[in-house]
């Protein structure tokens, strides 16, 4: 059976004080969450240490938003796998479209980061997805297939989550039609050697569309940006029906 993983990606939002306030609203709502749902908060590096202490003993797992491929070295501004695992981080987002678009992330560096995450005991959440122009040109399948082929070279598919995030649906309120997301995620699964890799949908997931998204047979969770910043809203998403 495939695992369900609901992850919030806070991106560059929330100071430590704000993250603490979020937890006070969010944690009490989780008591009813069924065991098989993994709940993850992928937060800014500066929030990780405090959240790690405050999440201890809760069902929520801690995630980072990037990891370097070396264990240590002269890489100003980067964070390594051992630095993350030491403070209790379990997941890390790799290859988010914002990293690819604004920070020069390539399939080569995504592949290096995926392998390093696994080497140091983290579960990577690999993001793939097409732009509006690529979709309109009928290139969605080719683009995603190429990303997977390059990103997953020598990656262990028994310790991996994939997020299908159509770039045009991120932060726009323009959610991908659920049946279409289900279709693309089915195509992603058909390209994997391990069919049990959890595959999430990401892109304008909200409390009012999560039930329909999670009703799709191929979709194993969600990677949630904006709607994960508000405790009650994210709790509703985590507690989808
Ligand atoms: O990582 C999360 C995605 O970029 C989705 O963001 P969003 O839910 O704000 O559209």
UniProtKB/TrEMBL annotation:
EC number(s) per entry: 5.3.1.1
Protein's GO biological process: gluconeogenesis; glyceraldehyde-3-phosphate biosynthetic process; glycerol catabolic process; glycolytic process
One annotated GO molecular function: triose-phosphate isomerase activity
Subcellular location: Cytoplasm
SUPFAM superfamilies, alphabetized: Triosephosphate isomerase (TIM)
Family recorded in the similarity comment: Belongs to the triosephosphate isomerase family.
Reported function: Involved in the gluconeogenesis. Catalyzes stereospecifically the conversion of dihydroxyacetone phosphate (DHAP) to D-glyceraldehyde-3-phosphate (G3P).
EC category name: isomerase
Protein name as annotated: Triosephosphate isomerase
One Pfam family matching this protein: TIM
Binding residue positions for substrate: 9-11, 171, 204, 225-226
PANTHER family tied to this protein: TRIOSEPHOSPHATE ISOMERASE (PTHR21139:SF42)
Signal peptide: none
Cellular compartments per GO CC: cytosol
Protein keywords: Cytoplasm, Gluconeogenesis, Glycolysis, Isomerase
């Amino acid at each position: 059976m495939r695992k369900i993983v609901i992850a919030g990606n806070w991106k560059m939002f929330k100071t430590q004080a704000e993250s603490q306030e979020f937890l006070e609203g969010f944690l009490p709502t989780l008591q009813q969450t069924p065991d098989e749902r993994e709940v993850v908060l992928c937060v800014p590096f500066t929030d990780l240490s405090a959240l790690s202490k405050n999440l201890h003993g809760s069902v929520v797992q801690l995630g980072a938003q990037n990891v370097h491929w070396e264990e240590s070295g002269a890489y100003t501004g980067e964070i390594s796998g051992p630095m993350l695992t030491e403070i209790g981080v379990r997941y890390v987002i790799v290859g988010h479209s914002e990293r690819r678009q604004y920070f020069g992330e390539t399939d080569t560096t995504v592949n290096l980061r995926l392998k390093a995450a696994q080497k140091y005991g983290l579960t990577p959440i690999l993001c793939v997805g097409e732009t509006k122009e690529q979709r309109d040109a009928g290139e969605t399948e080719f683009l995603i297939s190429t990303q997977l082929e390059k990103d997953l070279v020598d990656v262990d598919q028994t310790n991996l989550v994939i997020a299908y995030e159509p770039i045009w649906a991120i932060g726009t309120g323009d959610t991908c039609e659920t049946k279409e997301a289900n279709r693309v995620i089915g195509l992603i699964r058909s390209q994997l050697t391990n069919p049990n890799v959890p595959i999430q949908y990401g892109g304008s997931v909200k409390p009012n569309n999560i039930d329909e998204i999670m009703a799709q047979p191929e979709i194993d969770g969600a990677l949630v940006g904006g709607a994960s910043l508000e405790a009650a809203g994210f709790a509703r998403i985590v507690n989808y029906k």
